[in-house]
Design a protein that fits this description.
The protein has 190 residues and is α+β, with helices and mostly antiparallel strands. The chain has 2 domains: 8-48; 54-189, Immunoglobulin-like. The chain is built from 1 helix and 15 strands. The protein has one helix spanning 9-44; strands at 54-59, 64-65, 70-78, 86-92, 98-105, 111-117, 121-127, 129-131, 134-136, 141-151, 155-162, 168-171, 174-175, 180-183, 185-189. The strands form 3 sheets. Strands 2, 4, 6, 7, 11, 12, 13 and 15 form an 8-stranded mixed sheet that branches. Strands 5-10-3-1-14 form a 5-stranded mixed sheet, with no helix packed on it. The longest helix has 36 residues, at 9-44. It starts with 8 loop residues before the first helix and ends with a strand.
Length: 190
């Protein structure tokens, strides 16, 4: 005949404390293990390199010109290893002091399908070139255009700027605007 041996209250409490303690230790150990494995995985995840900036700069041999004379301003582009499928370059100027005389295409793109001269801005479009079965997609450093301006009025300072909103460089269907570093040009007209 089985003997009914009830546990005393003290033993019940002790067994309950042991079960809770083992559960707590197991939970804590598994949490620390998972946390360590996650930290190891994070440290092994390769970081994505930050793409190199693309420099777009307006330059001139001199920053001073006499009223009634011409000054050549070069629009330079440096993309590093980034290829460009197409680009719209918009350059702003103050028509009170400067007038566009002529735009000479540069050597960066092989094809410049559109050049627009307006009262206070110019827009130059360059695209990749298809030649036979080959496509030439430019990259590196080159000249987008040389712009000849006529100085029409004297001023201690007038600026020629690259339009940071309307200038667009595209590669693989992506706008590279966030990688652009702009260098504008200030002129003195005597």
């Amino acid at each position: 005949m089985p003997v009914n041996n009830p546990l005393s209250t003290g033993r019940k409490v002790l067994i309950t404390l042991l079960i809770v303690s083992f559960f707590f230790i197991g939970f804590t150990a598994s949490y620390k293990y998972v946390h360590q494995q996650f930290a190891k995985a994070q440290s092994k995840t390769p970081s994505i390199p930050t793409p190199a900036p693309i420099n777009l700069a307006l330059t001139a041999v001199k920053n001073t010109v006499n009223k009634g004379k011409y000054i050549s301003v070069t629009l330079n582009l440096a993309t590093g290893n980034q290829t460009l499928d197409a680009a719209d370059f918009v350059v702003n100027f103050d028509p009170k002091y400067l007038q566009v005389a002529k735009i000479f295409p540069g050597n960066f793109f092989k094809t410049y399908p559109s050049t627009k001269m307006d009262k206070d801005f110019i827009k130059i479009t360059g695209i990749a070139t298809l030649s036979g079965n080959s496509v030439f997609i430019p990259k590196g450093t080159g000249t987008v255009a040389i712009i000849s301006f006529l100085a029409t009025e004297k001023t201690p300072k007038t600026s020629i700027t690259i339009d940071k909103v309307k200038t667009v460089l595209a590669s693989g269907g992506n706008n590279l605007k966030n990688r652009l570093i702009f260098s504008d040009l200030d002129l003195t007209i005597n």
